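Dear H.,

Thanks for agreeing to be a second pair of eyes. The structure we're designing against is below in token form, covering all 388 positions.
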């Protein structure tokens, strides 16, 4: 559509300047109103983006994990107030850093702490128990085994005391296994992927026949201002049986757009199948961070989240006047990935955006994508610009 020219030009510019290639999809209700591809799935061979490429979604995985987890909350299989040790006993005697030493925690970690990233778990995966597992060629690093090992990890703070990006969603995946009696990948497939028609999404190692569809992954070298080809691996998939709830999703632009669309429509997919109640989605997108937690070091490090708080596994827009572009809707939510993927769901206007590229350490695109998406929607008369 001509009204989305600014968004299309921005995507073309990214592909020329930094992205090897990208794809972006915008939906309103259950209708796709914009789709654009730019650049290459493999820059060296000039293989163009075709639309069926598989990508490591990295931390966009957290949105799918949170949705699957919330199906268990909704059914009563788990409660946010449950201690993590109810499912993984090794979490019953954790310690935290204190004055150069370690002391037992006074507050037992709960599922609420995990889903809100206030657990105290960092992203350091080199602690002794996990390092030993990763080095052992006979250890396949099953998801629950890794979670049990993580019970020995020293927390950065008392649970609930601060916000810190870390392994929380990986532990949620293990809790899902215990609570459901299913392998995590099977649970997400049954509760999220299959109902929405996400046929190309998996948390399990990519089938051999699909590996040729992987878009080449790059890393941006800011010193030399060039993109560097990587070996197409994901360091947070710790072993060949590990399913990382925080970073292990492999999927396509089309599939992840279906997830974003369902969340923007209160849990209902394009095919009419509901994965979550509207009330559950509203609960996910309610900010859970106090002003003190939002201004804490851990959250401030995500500089592009100005105006956002954090809900149940997702960023949540709470202060549109606190961001520079003015194009923001309270309650809009989602998350982003290390290789550049961006998921936006706006249930107020039933609008979603999904953007994907395959380049680590590149430019953060959330603010520009959001602004240009809303500009296009306003210009097309699809939604009305409002003051919030």
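And this is the sequence the design step returned. I haven't edited it by hand at all.
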């Amino acid at each position: 559509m001509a009204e989305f020219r600014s968004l299309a030009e921005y995507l073309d510019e990214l592909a020329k300047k930094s992205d090897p290639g990208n794809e972006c999809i915008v939906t309103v209700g259950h209708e796709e109103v914009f789709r654009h591809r730019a650049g290459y799935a493999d820059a060296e061979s000039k293989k163009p983006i075709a639309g069926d490429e598989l990508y490591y979604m990295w931390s966009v995985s957290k949105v799918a994990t949170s949705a699957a987890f919330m199906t268990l909350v909704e059914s009563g299989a788990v409660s946010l107030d449950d201690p993590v040790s109810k499912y993984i006993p090794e979490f019953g005697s954790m310690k935290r850093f204190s004055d150069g030493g370690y002391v037992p925690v006074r507050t037992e970690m709960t599922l609420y702490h995990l889903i809100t990233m206030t657990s105290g778990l960092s992203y350091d995966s080199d602690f002794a128990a996990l390092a030993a597992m990763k080095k052992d060629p006979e250890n396949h690093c099953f998801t629950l085994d890794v979670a049990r090992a993580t019970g020995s990890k020293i927390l950065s703070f008392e649970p609930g005391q601060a916000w810190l990006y870390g392994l929380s969603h990986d532990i949620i995946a293990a809790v899902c296994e215990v609570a459901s009696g299913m392998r995590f990948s099977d649970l997400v497939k049954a509760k999220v992927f299959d109902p929405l028609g996400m046929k190309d999404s998996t948390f399990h190692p990519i089938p051999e026949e699909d590996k040729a569809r992987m878009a080449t992954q790059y890393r941006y070298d800011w010193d030399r201002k060039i993109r560097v080809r990587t070996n197409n691996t994901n360091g947070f998939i710790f072993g060949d049986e590990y399913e990382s709830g925080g970073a292990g999703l492999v999927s396509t632009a089309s599939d992840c757009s279906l997830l974003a669309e369902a969340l923007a429509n209160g849990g209902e997919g394009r095919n009419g199948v509901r994965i979550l109640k509207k009330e559950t989605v509203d609960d996910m997108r309610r900010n859970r961070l106090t002003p003190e937690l939002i201004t804490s070091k851990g959250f401030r490090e995500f500089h592009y989240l100005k105006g956002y708080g954090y809900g149940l596994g997702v960023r949540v827009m709470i202060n549109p006047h606190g961001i520079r572009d003015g194009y923001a809707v309270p309650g809009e939510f989602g998350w982003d990935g290390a290789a550049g993927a961006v998921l936006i769901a706006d249930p107020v206007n039933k609008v979603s955006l999904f953007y994907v590229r395959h380049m680590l350490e590149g430019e953060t695109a959330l603010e520009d994508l959001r602004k240009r998406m809303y500009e296009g929607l306003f210009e097309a008369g699809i939604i009305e610009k409002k003051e919030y």
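Two observations from my side: The chain has a mean pLDDT of 95. The chain has twelve helices and 15 strands.

Warmly,
E.
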